[in-house]
Amino acid sequence: MTTNTTTTNQVDAGHETSTFAIGVGITMAVIVGLWGTACLVSALASNGPLGLVKGYLAALIG
């Protein structure tokens, strides 16, 4: 006697897609945050804190 057993795995495509999209979004946010921090540290090293504030105010005021 032979018994045929089949199993099916159903995947919720919407859940998998949203999980992937959230992962990509979080990864991109981390990369942008690290890049912004690196730019801020570079500006501080080049101009010092007062030069950075002066440049920021000049950019806002014009």
Question: How would you characterize the overall build of this protein?
Answer:
With 62 residues, this protein is mostly helical. It has a domain at 20-62. The protein has one helix and no strands. The protein has one helix spanning 13-61. The longest helix has 49 residues, at 13-61. The protein is rod-shaped, with a radius of gyration of 26 Å.
Q: How would you state the average pLDDT, rounded?
A: 91
Ends: how far apart? 88 Å
What is the makeup of the main sheet? none
In terms of DSSP E residues, the strand content is under 5%
SSE string, helices as H and strands as E: H
Helix content: over 70%
Structural class computed from helices and strand pairing: mainly alpha
- Which value, in Å, is the CA radius of gyration? 26 Å
Note the total helix count.
1
- The backbone outline, from C-alpha atoms, is rod-shaped
Strand segment count: 0
- Low-pLDDT regions: none
List keywords for this structure.
62 residues, 79% helix, 0% strand
Quick overview:
With 62 residues, the protein is an all-alpha fold. The chain has one helix at residues 13-61.
List the helices and strands and how they pair.
Layout: H1 13-61
